[in-house]
Amino acid sequence: MNEQPNAGAAPVIDAQKVNFYYGNSQALHHISLSFPRRQVTALIGPSGCGKSTFLRCLNRMNDLVDGARVEGKILLGDIDINSSAMDVIELRRRVGMVFQKSNPFPKSIYENVIYGLRIAGVRDKATLDEAVEHSLKGAALWDEVKDRLQESALGMSGGQQQRLCIARAIAVNPEVILMDEPCSALDPKSTARVEELIGELRQDYTIIIVTHNMQQAARVSDHTAFLYEGLLVEYGLTKKIFMKPKNKKTEDYITGRFG
Amino acid sequence: MKKYWREGEPMVWATGAALTLTLMIAATLIIVVMVNGLGVFWPKNLTLVTLKSGSRVLGEVVQREATASGEGERLQFKIGNRDLYGLDFRWVDEADFEKTELPEAAMVLERQEYGNFYGMLQSVSAPGFEASSSQALEQLMEQVAIKKQGLEEFTEKINDLNRRTSKLEHQKQILFHDDPQKNQDAIAALDRQVEALRGEFEHLVNRQTEAAVELHHYTATFSDVNGTQKTMQATEIVRYYQPNTMNVFEKGLLYLARVVELFIDDPRESNTEGGLFPAIFGTVMLIFLMSLFSFPLGVIAAVYLREYAKDGTAVRLVRIAVNNLAGIPSIVYGIFGLGFFVYGIGSGIDQIFFPERLPTPTFGTGGILWASLTLALLTVPVVIVATEEALGAIPTGIREGSLALGSTKFQALVRILLPMASPGIMTGLILAMARAAGEVAPLMITGVVKLAPALPLDGTFPFLHLDRKFMHLGFHIYDIAFQSPNVEAAKPMVYVTTLLLVLIVLLMSSVAIHLRNKMKKRYTYGTF
Ligand SMILES: Nc1ncnc2c1ncn2[C@@H]1O[C@H](COP(=O)(O)OP(=O)(O)OP(=O)(O)O)[C@@H](O)[C@H]1O
Ligand SMILES: [Mg+2]
To answer: Which of residues 123-152 of A touch B (CB under 8 A)?
Structure first.
């Protein structure tokens, strides 16, 4: 794994002094974090500290929340995603998301995978077929479902559904994939598969993952950010954070003394 | 005892009892309608009773009950022959009976006018033909049927001429309305055309009259049970049979024939006899049009409320208003429909598109379009509430999943949310249809009539005549039950019409429920 933080190319996403408000209550305070290309960054912290809120700022999912307001800059490449220069549809295509609870559409497996392409206006059958195979292989699901692509996605197991959601996200070929506790509803075996998958996906994608599972964070991520009550407490290489955290709170959290 | 209460037994009993009670009331209603409605067309035997006084009664036994004094029973007979007796029903005390028999010769005639005739065949007469057997009657009726067809052809030709004439008249009206001076020549030309058609018309009418007059010579003479003779034209007789000689199979065939007649024939005798076809047609078409209006309107309104409007006081107020709309008495909708659609929009349309026909209104009077729009207003809250609930029941995860893949709100709606909500929306539509099918009050002032001259959908251009008045089963029930001059004779028809209305609602909602279940299977298979 990478030795130094932010080594190599410029960060894909660079958040600068982000404040976030739900109505009058502030959920994020001055968060500055950047995410290096083709690396996995884990966001950890106790429940309610703002991990999901921050993650959802990155693809503007919070737009859907009434009264939500964001301050500061979040750069994707060199465009501020909250400025008018960035189209939110375009942003969400470049920054995909996998949710905590798997949410396949009540359509066939095939249609689920190509949903993003269909709404983008892709019609060519060959392109779609290829995207399905490529994405399902990428999500380590191809062998299990290749004979039942036309069956409903709702007939799959929970673990398969979650991997289908990952396949759906990578089908539109995003730069970044956001994952909000993708394994929290899965059994250990499915979790292991998804973790393995993340290991493979980091070859091509920048991944930001929220997790409550310290072992998981240690296993899959290159970098770790620890959030506490809306503040970024510590950020660094995963190894360092887990071996010798600088902050007392981080240490307490990682060793399981609270949270 | 305490334990008894704690286990909640009494509550279970109470809820169970409440359910049973409602089910029983509904079942009783249906059973009463079924028993009375299904039996109407079964041919009943003709009973001949000789009374102690010496007079005789011939008819169908309708019902029996205890006499007022409490001793013995009395029977109600349908004695028919309204043209002879004035009344078709008669009560007779069983105590007065001398003799009861089922004479084989007793015959039932269903007639175009005056209801049934009960009596015996005396003689049959046609040009150059005189007989008195029932075979002769059969031959006579066959000949008449053929001649009637010929007559019908004339009628059709005349109708066609009429249509052409009225088209020309209408063109004339337009020209006249435009500028009588300038269009003088054209108007004169039209006049000449109309004149030519009129000649043709007179010729046809003469020939038709001749044929009809000839038919008048085909008659049959019957006598009632007391010997009064009555000569009838064969064309008056719709059907004749001798119930006392018929076996179950023959009666069954007759039953079927009458049921078929019910579905395909026009009504007779101020709606108390004959078929219900125009009313069935009107009802189905009304509900169909209503759905066509209220379904999209309701769904779109609900989509806006749930998906686009910012949740706040305004939206909440609208929601409350929509819910309360469902509680407004339907007659209020009717009055609104009359004022807004008929007098407002309808008159406006007339002024703009049909000024030449004024003051005769085209759309500025009740019609199926306005009635269905009024019903659509009445049922749209049901669709809105159902759609909103169905959309609201979709997990946010699905919505976000679609948006996170870069879909617009509209794409998410069309591709994911509406299909997922469709079973719930269908439920709303079913409820709306059921409600619309049962409404009569608002229709009475927006276009329903006792007897419509033509269907709102037929073979003449432009085929769909939304301005026409229409007939409706619900109004039919009200009309024959309370407005007919002969309530007793209308009673069977009330049951039949009710049964039919219930069946139509049942049929339409089972189709909708079938559709809904199909959708449900498709969108909710194997929940997680
Ligand atoms: N839609 C919302 N409206 C108002 N407040 C919210 C909303 N969503 C979250 N919050 C608040 O914002 C804070 C951060 O929530 P967030 O969901 O980001 O926490 P989290 O770190 O993801 O927690 P968890 O680990 O439990 O998922 C919490 O105090 C929460 O109550
Ligand atoms: Mg969270």
So the answer is: 152
- Which residues, chain by chain, have CB under 5 Å from ion ligand 2? A 52
Q: Is A223 on the interface with B (CB under 8 A)?
A: no
Q: Which residues, other chains included, contact B243 with Cβ-Cβ below 8 Å and sequence gap of 6+?
A: B43, B44, B45, B46, B106, B108, B251
- pLDDT tens digits, one per residue of A236-247: 999 999 988 888
* Whether residue A115 has pLDDT greater than 90: yes
Nearest one of B97, B55, B58 to B77, comparing CA atoms: B58
Does residue B484 fall inside a structural domain? yes
Q: How many CB pairs under 8 A join A and B?
A: 82
Domain boundary, last residue among B166, B186, B216: B216
Place of tokens 């007897």: B451
- Which residue has the least CA distance to atom 8 on ligand 1? A53
Distance CA A62, CA A60 (A): 5
CB contact under 8 A, B401 and A99: yes
Determine the distance separating the centroid of ligand 1 and the alpha carbon of A5, expressed in angstroms.
Answer: 28
Mean pLDDT of all residues in B463-491? 84
Interface check for B518 against chain A (CB to CB < 8 A): the answer is: no
A119 in Cβ contact with A70 (< 8 Å): no
Domain boundary among B227, B258, B289: B258
The angle formed by the CA atoms of residues A26, A28 and A34, to the nearest 5 degrees, is 160
On whether both B197 and B314 belong to a single domain, the answer is: no
Task: Enumerate residues 6+ apart whose C-beta is below 8 A from B229.
Answer: B122, B221, B222, B223
- B390: in domain: yes
pLDDT at residue A9, rounded to an integer: 58
- Does pLDDT of A2 surpass 80? no
pLDDT-derived band at A6 (thresholds 50, 70, 90) equals very low
Check B526 against A154: CB less than 8 A apart: yes
**Whether residue B98 is found in the same domain as residue B161:** no
The alpha carbon of A51 and the centre of ligand 2 are apart by a number of angstroms equal to 6
Number of domains in chain B: 3
The residue range of the domain holding B206 is 128-216
- Cβ of A62 less than 6 Å from ligand 1: no
Q: How many CA atoms lie within 13 A of A154 on its CB side?
A: 14
Q: For chain A, say whether B414 makes contact (Cβ under 8 Å).
A: no
**Residue B2 domain-assigned (yes or no):** no
Which residues, 6+ apart, have CB-to-CB distance to A35 below 8 Å?
A: A11, A12, A13, A14, A41, A176, A206, A208, A223
